[in-house]
């Protein structure tokens, strides 16, 4: 999608500080971190939101969670814990309409998040 900021990051049109990349996903540091560790993990294929997942693309979610597990271990947040967030739709707080997961760690989190 030509106007999607995450697609532009995938296509190297916008620079990012990459943490992980393979043929299916890209992970990079969030430019406005909400925690000492704040990574965004996205599929390279443009999927607008969790509402757009179907039998043909749902495999990407399990792959993303395996990547998150690997990143959390490498960044030293796996043992104490971390939060994974997916915002879906306007009321869910989704501001970029490309499926993505925030991985936050390095501090303690409260519930409910607000």
Automatic annotation (TrEMBL):
SUPFAM superfamilies: HIT-like
Any GO MF annotation of the entry: catalytic activity
Taxonomy, superkingdom: Bacteria
Motif, Histidine triad motif: chain positions: 98-102
Ranges for domain HIT: 5-114
Active site per database record: 100
Protein's UniProt name: Histidine triad nucleotide-binding protein
Organism: Inconstantimicrobium porci
